[in-house]
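Narrative of activities, Objective 1.

The group set out to show that a structural description can be obtained from nothing but a protein's sequence at a throughput compatible with the screening campaign. Below is one input-output pair from the validation batch, recorded exactly as produced.
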Amino acid sequence: MRDMSQVLERWGGWARSDSSGVDYSSIAAGFKGLLPQDSKITLSCSDDDGLVIESCMTRLKLKRPEEHALLVAHYLFRIPKRKIAQKEKCDEKLIRIQVQMAEGFIEGCLSWLDVKLDMDVELEPKKLPKKTLTRSAKSLVM
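Output recorded for this entry:
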């Protein structure tokens, strides 16, 4: 199971880059002045991963355009969920639920496509080797 927030953060970095070939407006509709400053370090994904995720985003836009707009605002334009809730004049909890539902939709699309993303190797949780306890030969057992 993938961490969709990390997957979508990398997709957002890929979509923001000039080499993505996907055209998004430079400003999210109605969110002018809310965009945070760009940071110099941006995570990105490969072009193959970006195009697969973009196809899932297109499917989301056809089925649930409001949730698509939330993902684009949050992951592409880096607008915090709290600012989105303030702009929409609704509870932040509702925005968080809608974002989770949209993330679930994208995860379901990726699962249905049965595709392994290049970034999956990097995002897998590292398994620590099991340590076995050994007893020193000099210890006394009482």
